[in-house]
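User: Last request for today: this protein with NAP, please.
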Amino acid sequence: MKYALVTGGARGIGKTVSIQLAQKGYKVLINFRSNVQAARETLETIEANGGSAELLQFDVSSLEDTKNVLGKWIENHPEDVIEVLVNNAGIKKDNLMLLMEEEEWSSVLNTNLNSVFYVTRLVLKKMIANRYGRIVNMVSLSGIKGLPGQTNYSGSKAGVIGVTKALAQEVGRRKITVNAVAPGFIKTDMTEAIEEKDFKAMIPMRRFGTPEEVAGVVSFLVSPEASYITGEVISVNGGLYT
Ligand code: NAP
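Assistant: Here's the final one, the structure of the complex with NAP:
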């Protein structure tokens, strides 16, 4: 059985990625942290569309939790392979650097950056043995441009861009591609408090994007057609650069 693991795959962008990967024939491992109801709804949507998925609840910011749940799952499924990994789980806790609490810094760095190390390292072993794999990391315009009030978030996403480029060079000869997708403003719970009307004037496309528009790029990057693309950061931001 070929699996795709989507961290934070129960809501927002990750939910749509999970649904699209199930449509491509993958059995989807939907990771989430605490919102069981959202996770069940995503699972039901996939099953209603004829796809197949499984819930895998663990906190990607915790090395211990990731090892205990994902590590055990891998141990217990020696015949199965996670062929696609989408490191999508992320949080933001915006504040000016001067006012930022240590917890606001460390929780964002742990969830957005350290998680990529915790999860990818576990999944990579089998990909290397199989000489095939697709890794897509969800970054952000904020990690490319840097946004005021987001030193923690921008730092975490810029870090993931560095990881993406370095890892792509480590595993390219094993036919594993590693790419990043950098959304701008996308309509999800994360941007709920941001008014589209206040920001759309600065976006050339004059609107926020949809999870489908981000998931479509992930679907392409994991497809055979994208086999010679690696170490790239693909922006999905309606033309919003600097
Ligand atoms: P969202 O709607 O807030 O959903 C976040 C998902 O991540 C949820 O399923 C959540 O699980 C999960 N999650 C959060 N912390 C986790 C943890 N420690 N362990 C496991 N799962 C965790 O977010 P989104 O807008 O879809 O964002 C998805 C990704 O895109 C993030 O990496 C974000 O930084 C990036 N991004 C988003 C935008 C945007 O405009 N929305 C723009 C640029 C980049 P629970 O449901 O259990 O809480």
